[in-house]
Structure formats: structure tokens, C-alpha cells
């Protein structure tokens, strides 16, 4: 996978690139655990062991919707080697849990609401015994007709005590009577994607002498998970501890709480350590997926192509339980018009329960689905007006100071026009040669059935936006402690390293602030103060901000005695390359000498400015910050077979400030590649609510062979003044934008509407050539 320098504007004349520092902010510092992970020695939850270990297995429902008539655990309990069997009757505390809305039981008791819902769990002295015992639990079901169409959920009998409607957001902005000279409409469908983590869920529960339990998990939000576990176990939170183990990849909330909770129950019941390693099938059935979405749009524009009004209806399929569907709907409705100036907007959004697998937080939730739809609408407008698609977009893009349809003013940097111009002006890739040695360039690969004469090239554009941190009044706060002793710094912060690079960033912050080269980041557990979930770039902002504040407090402790000795303020001293110097050169010493014999430490919090919930008309200052991205996609389409090859994706993104160039490029490339999967291959099929082919054979992830050339043609470093370091989230917005850009390019190549993701072959076939 290739990548251009982050500041390059064209291939012919790259802008000069400043020399990178060797440490601190701006350096391409490698991950501290990179070597262990590449050598296979990094400890994940699946590698854990304890004396007297038992193994767990979970019995899951084979039905999407059923009434439980009876559960008989007699045969399972009597099997040799079985130590415990637990069902809903063994849950001593609050029976409901859930990431956003606590509405799901630990075990189904009366009604099964989705395929794979936990019914019982077993602990035994061997993993095979545990699996056989789980299969020996006899459950009598009365199978019910599942509700799998979200449009039918409005009229269906309630599937849950809380009803089928999770949230409705009506957004009203401007004049409802406004109309444009040109109108285009569209109906769009987005499929169900799975996070498909590299490693399936695994964990270890160890009972404590005080009657509590310790859970060793790859949790991305350990304090929330601890509180949920304590409530379900009937324990106070101080008697449940979560220790975060190595996270084998996370593009969402990593751990399924329905997986964690039976584990601790078994440990408490048996008094022994219990380990559970999910199969790939269980992983697909257990954790949350991206919301399948139905979108109806109508765009109004004047004769010059400037948007007058956008009308839309957005329906999210939340599956059986609410999870974070309310948050996803807020993002979808708020960003339904995209990074464009829209004076009049009328959006209706709903999230409903069905008997499909639960949906929840997946990178770019809500924003990805609407991006695919509003960018398709922009392509339709351009075609109807006879305008270049990029030019039409340029006439409508947002800028700092513009107002979103929710009524919030964009106060952060919003260089959308600059991003779009950068990808539009970047040189296009060369056309493939019609020679035998270049056959691998054809869609379908080297052994594909395609013919060069049937291949058409298309160029398309996508503009995307996401919010950073939580929204609608979420209290985003993180706490960090920085300690320095014997020239070695230690950072304590409960921000989980999920692959986003927080531990590397924390080291760079301390290096930059204190001039200490050796920095260690302590392992995460719930004995530390909360830092919140590892999503939406929040750890770069709030946890990185907390580390910076704590480091600056330690810096003041270090410099104060020196400043007092020389009769100057600490502001007149600077730390550079491990040396402390004064503005006038009178003072010059090393950090090591100043630190000698001292142990310094400080604890600090970071909390961004508050936000507010959307009101009854969908209005409010709901978001802390926004990030934007522009992508130009180049695709080759075999219009006879409908196969698509993504040739190149040119990316321009506003990042606020580049904190680690190599890490930032890797995050953008990974997000873009994930977007390729969403656009072309990833679709978890659930006929009648049953997950079909829950494995990595049936669920087609893009491989290295599917990854296109990714050209990062421009990174706009216009710092967000309210963010620590001025940096913005970088991972989610290319995921949001890439599928829309690829669909736009396929439309350009084929002339077909392409109104569904992932793009099916029949949608790219041209019959009237």
C-alpha cells in the first residue's frame, strides 16, 4: 500500500517536508508493544492462565424470536467434570445491562429476541466438556415469527417491554415551504457490517477472598463494564475489578458485555478461576454490528447548483436491543446533509427494535450511512444540472462560521473546500495497459473472467464529517497521573490502548513536556480513575489532555526551585532535548541533574466544554468538535460481470496537528481500507433474523490484495484551539467517506444509480452498451 507525504499537493511538486524530531510530539515514535505483537509474544486475554482453571461455554439461542417454555439443566449438571451451570435464575442483581441503554438480560428467561442470545453458561474442567454440557442443556422453545423489517416494527406487537421505538428525532431547520428549481430524490439501503476483530472475545474471571471477582478482559471501557458487572452480580463496584489485557484490534466497543457477565457469575458460583474463549461464530453472534439503515432523500437546488433544502427520512435497525442506537441516530440526523451549507433542512430519524442481531457502536456510526446517501444525491444533482461533481460540491461546502442544520455554529477549523480541491487536482493514475502481463489489473484478479474491452474507469468524490468525543451533554472527562523518579517517568491513565496509539502519544507528551526520554505507561485497571471509552478520538483529546496537564504540573514542580534560585519565573525557562535553559543563557543544566534525588508527581483531569441534547426540533449545540475528509476514488468496473477494482483513493483530511506522522498515516490507511470493505464486500446476511455464515469465510473482509493505492495528498494542520495540542480525530472520518467515494466512482463508470452498500455485482452491470 503506497502513501504520499502528508503535506504533498501534487506528485510533481511535493511541498518541502520538515525534518521530524527524534522524540516528543511530531516524532514517528513506534508503538512500545510493536515488537512483541509482530513476534507473537504479546499477551492477549486468550493467553491467560490461572491455577485451578475451569473452562466456560455459553448456550445460545438457535432462533431469532421464540418463547422459552422450559429450561432443563439436569443432564448438563450431571456430566462428569461439570462444576456449574447458570441461567437467568442465578443472576442475583439487576438483570438488565447494555452499553447505552440497559435493556438486555444477562440470560434470556421468557423471550428470545435475537439469534445467538445467551440462555445458559457452563463451567467445566475441560473446554470440550464445557461445550458438550452447554449443548446438553435442554430448552423447549415456542418459535415465534420474527420481525426483521424495521418498517414493520412500527405496527408490530412490542418485541420488548420498552416497546419497539427506541428514539425519534424530528429535525426542523429553516422554511418548510422553501423549494428549489431542481429536485432529485433517492432511496438508499446500507447493509449490516461487523467489526470482525482480529481476535475473538476471550477473558478470565478470578474470584476474590472478599467475595468479589476480578475480570481480565480486552475491555475498551473498563469502568462502565465494571459497573454493569457489579449491578448484575449484586455486588458493590469496589468488589469487582477489571484488568485490561491486550486488545486484539478494536474498531468499536470491543467487548460484548453479554460475554463478560456469564464469566464472572461462573467464577463466583464455583469459587475457581474461569476462562472463556469465544469461537468466531460466537463472536459474530454476540457483539454489536453497524446499524442497517434505510434512507429516503429529496434535495432541492437552484439553477446554479446551490442547495436550497434537504428532506430526508432515516430508519436505523437497532436489532433486538437499544445499545448505543440513540447516539447513532443523533449523529445520522445531525449530519444528514453532510459538510454542505443547507439553509433549510427537514429530517426525520427513527431507531427501532427488531429481531435482528443487536446493532451498536461501530466506527463512524450514523455518519457513514448518511454520507453514502447524501453523496449519491450530490451526484444526481450534478448529473441533472450538467455540472462536474467536484464543482457542484465546491459551490456548497461548509466553512468555519457556517451553521449546521441542528443550529450549531461551526467554530472549529472546517477547510472542506481546501480538502476537496486537493484531491480534485491530484494527478489521476495511469490507465491500465491492455497487455498480458497487466491482466492482474483487471477487476476480478489475475484469473478473473473479465475482458479488457468490458472495463470502464470511473472517478468519484466523497466528503465526510464526524463528531469527536461524545455528544448531547455527555460528560467527557479523563484523569491521568504522571510520576517521575530516577529519570524515569510513569503515566497512569485508564485510557485503553486499542491500536489507536494512545500509549505512544502519552509517552510523546511527557517527553515533550519534561524532557525525560524513558517513559512507561502503566497497565489499565479499574483501580485507576475513569478515562471513558476508547472511541471517537476521545483519548487523544481528553486523556491526552489530562496527561499533558499532569506533566505540566510536574514541570512546574521541577522548574520552580531553579527559577526561585535565579530570581526569575518558570515561564522564562525552557526544556529542550533534555536540557533546562533560561532565556538569557545564565541557567543551563540537564533535566537529569535537576531531577536527581527527587520524586515528583501530579494528577490532573481534562474535560472539554459542555454540550447539550437536541431539543424537540432537533436543534442544539450537541457536539464538541468536528473532523472532515475528502476522498477521490478511481475504480475500474467490468460492466459485463459487475466486478469492481478500486485503483486508487486520494485522501485529504483536516487533522488539526500531526502528533505522530507514521501513526497518523497508518490510521488513515486503515480507515480507508475498512471503507473499501464496507463499499464492496462486507455484509452480514441475516435472513429471517438468522446470521448466515458467521465466520470469516462467509463474511468477506478486504485483504491486502483488495487494498488500493492510498495517496494521502494533503493533511491540513489548522489547529482546533479548544482541543489539547489542536489535534483532531483521524480514524473514523475516512471510514465514513471512502464508501461514498467508491460508490460515486462506480456511478461515474457505469451510469447506474448504485443505491445500496455494499455494491452488489448486478448494480454495476451495464446491459445497454
Spatial arrangement of strands, main beta sheet:
3-7-1-14-11-12-13
By DSSP (H or I, 4+ residues per run), the number of helices equals: 15
**Structural domain tally:** 3
Task: Report the uncertain regions.
Answer: 1-17
Quote the average pLDDT: 90
Strand content: 25-35%
CATH class of the largest domain: Alpha Beta
What labels describe this entry?
globular; single chain; Ald_Oxase/xanthine_DH-like; Aldehyde Oxidoreductase, domain 4; 24% helix; 26% strand; Aldehyde Oxidoreductase, domain 3; 3 domains; 29 strands; Molybdopterin-dependent oxidoreductase; oxidoreductase activity; disordered N terminus; 7-stranded mixed β-sheet; 769 residues
Amino acid at each position: 500500500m503506497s502513501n504520499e507525504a502528508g503535506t504533498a499537493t501534487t506528485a510533481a511538486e511535493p511541498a518541502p517536508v520538515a525534518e521530524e524530531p527524534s522524540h516528543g510530539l511530531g516524532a514517528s515514535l513506534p508503538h512500545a508493544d510493536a515488537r512483541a505483537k509482530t513476534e507473537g509474544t504479546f499477551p492477549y486475554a486468550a493467553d491467560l492462565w490461572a491455577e485451578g482453571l475451569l473452562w466456560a461455554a455459553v448456550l445460545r439461542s438457535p432462533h431469532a424470536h421464540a418463547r422459552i417454555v422450559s429450561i432443563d439443566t439436569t443432564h448438563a449438571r450431571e456430566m462428569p467434570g461439570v462444576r456449574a451451570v447458570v441461567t437467568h435464575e442465578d443472576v442475583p442483581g439487576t438483570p438488565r445491562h447494555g452499553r447505552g441503554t440497559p435493556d438486555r438480560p444477562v440470560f434470556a428467561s421468557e423471550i428470545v429476541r435475537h439469534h445467538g442470545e445467551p440462555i445458559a453458561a457452563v463451567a467445566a474442567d475441560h473446554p470440550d466438556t464445557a461445550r458438550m454440557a452447554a449443548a446438553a442443556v435442554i430448552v423447549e422453545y415456542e418459535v415465534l415469527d420474527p420481525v426483521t423489517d424495521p418498517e414493520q416494527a412500527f405496527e408490530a406487537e412490542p418485541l420488548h417491554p420498552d416497546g419497539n421505538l427506541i428514539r425519534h428525532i424530528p429535525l426542523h431547520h429553516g422554511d418548510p415551504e422553501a423549494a428549489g428549481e431542481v429536485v432529485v430524490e433517492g432511496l438508499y439501503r446500507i447493509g449490516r457490517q461487523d467489526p470482525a476483530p482480529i481476535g475473538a472475545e476471550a477473558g478470565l474471571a478470578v474470584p476474590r477472598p472478599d467475595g468479589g471477582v476480578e475480570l481480565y478482559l480486552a475491555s475498551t471501557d473498563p469502568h462502565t463494564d465494571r459497573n454493569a458487572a457489579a449491578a448484575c452480580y449484586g455486588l458493590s463496584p469496589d468488589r469487582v475489578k477489571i484488568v485490561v489485557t491486550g486488545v486484539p484490534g478494536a474498531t468499536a466497543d470491543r467487548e460484548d458485555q453479554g460475554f463478560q457477565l456469564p464469566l464472572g457469575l461462573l467464577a463466583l458460583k464455583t469459587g475457581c478461576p474461569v476462562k472463556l474463549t469465544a469461537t468466531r461464530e460466537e463472536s459474530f453472534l454476540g457483539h454489536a454490528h453497524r446499524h442497517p439503515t434505510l434512507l429516503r432523500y429529496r434535495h432541492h437546488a437552484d439553477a446554479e447548483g446551490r442547495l436550497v433544502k434537504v428532506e430526508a427520512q432515516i430508519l436505523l435497525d437497532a436489532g433486538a436491543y437499544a445499545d448505543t442506537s440513540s447516539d447513532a441516530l443523533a449523529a445520522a440526523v445531525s449530519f444528514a446533509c453532510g459538510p454542505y451549507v443547507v439553509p433549510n433542512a427537514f429530517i426525520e430519524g427513527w431507531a427501532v427494535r427488531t429481531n435482528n442481531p443487536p446493532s451498536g457502536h461501530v466506527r463512524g456510526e450514523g455518519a457513514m450511512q448518511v454520507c453514502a446517501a447524501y453523496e449519491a444525491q450530490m451526484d444526481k444533482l450534478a448529473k441533472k444540472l450538467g455540472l462536474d461533481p467536484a464543482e457542484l460540491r465546491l459551490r456548497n461546502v461548509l466553512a468555519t462560521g457556517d451553521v449546521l442544520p441542528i443550529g450549531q455554529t461551526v467554530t472549529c477549523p472546517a477547510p472542506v473546500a481546501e480538502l476537496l480541491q486537493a484531491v480534485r487536482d491530484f494527478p489521476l493514475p495511469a490507465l491500465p495497459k491492455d497487455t498480458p502481463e497487466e491482466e492482474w489489473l483487471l477487476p476480478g484478479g489475475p484469473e478473473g473472467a473479465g475482458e479488457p474491452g468490458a472495463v470502464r474507469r470511473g472517478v468519484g468524490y466523497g466528503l465526510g464529517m464526524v463528531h469527536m468525543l461524545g455528544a448531547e451533554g455527555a460528560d467527557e472527562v479523563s484523569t491521568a497521573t504522571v510520576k517521575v523518579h530516577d529519570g524515569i517517568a510513569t503515566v497512569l491513565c485508564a485510557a485503553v490502548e486499542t491500536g489507536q496509539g494512545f500509549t505512544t502519544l502519552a509517552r510523546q507528551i511527557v517527553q515533550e513536556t519534561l524532557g525525560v526520554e524513558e517513559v512507561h505507561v502503566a497497565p489499565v485497571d479499574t483501580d485507576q480513575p475513569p478515562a471513558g471509552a476508547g472511541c471517537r478520538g476521545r483519548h487523544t483529546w481528553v486523556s491526552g489532555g489530562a496527561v499533558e496537564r499532569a506533566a505540566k504540573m510536574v514541570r512546574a514542580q521541577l522548574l520552580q526551585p531553579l527559577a526561585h534560585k535565579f530570581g526569575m519565573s518558570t515561564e522564562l525557562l525552557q526544556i529542550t532535548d533534555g536540557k533546562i535553559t533560561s532565556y538569557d543563557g545564565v541557567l543551563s543544566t540537564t533535566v537529569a541533574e535537576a531531577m536527581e534525588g527527587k520524586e515528583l508527581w501530579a494528577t490532573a483531569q481534562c474535560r472539554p466544554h459542555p454540550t447539550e441534547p437536541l431539543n424537540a426540533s432537533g436543534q442544539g449545540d450537541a457536539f464538541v468538535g468536528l473532523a472532515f475528509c475528502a476522498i477521490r476514488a478511481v475504480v475500474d468496473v467490468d460492466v459485463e460481470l459487475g466486478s469492481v477494482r478500486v485503483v486508487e483513493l486520494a485522501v485529504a483530511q483536516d487533522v488539526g496537528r500531526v502528533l505522530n506522522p507514521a501513526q497518523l498515516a497508518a490510521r488513515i490507511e486503515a480507515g480507508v481500507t475498512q471503507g473499501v470493505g464496507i463499499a464492496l464486500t462486507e455484509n452480514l446476511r441475516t435472513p429471517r433474523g438468522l446470521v448466515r455464515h458467521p465466520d470469516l469465510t462467509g463474511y468477506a473482509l478486504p485483504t491486502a490484495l483488495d487494498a488500493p493505492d492510498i495517496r494521502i495528498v494533503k493533511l491540513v494542520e489548522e489547529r482546533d484551539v479548544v482541543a489539547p495540542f489542536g489535534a483532531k480525530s483521524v480514524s473514523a472520518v475516512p471510514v465514513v467517506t471512502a464508501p461514498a467515494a467508491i460508490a460515486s466512482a462506480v456511478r461515474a463508470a457505469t451510469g447506474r444509480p448504485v443505491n445500496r452498500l455494499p455494491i452488489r455485482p448486478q448494480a454495476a452491470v451495464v446491459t445497454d452498451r
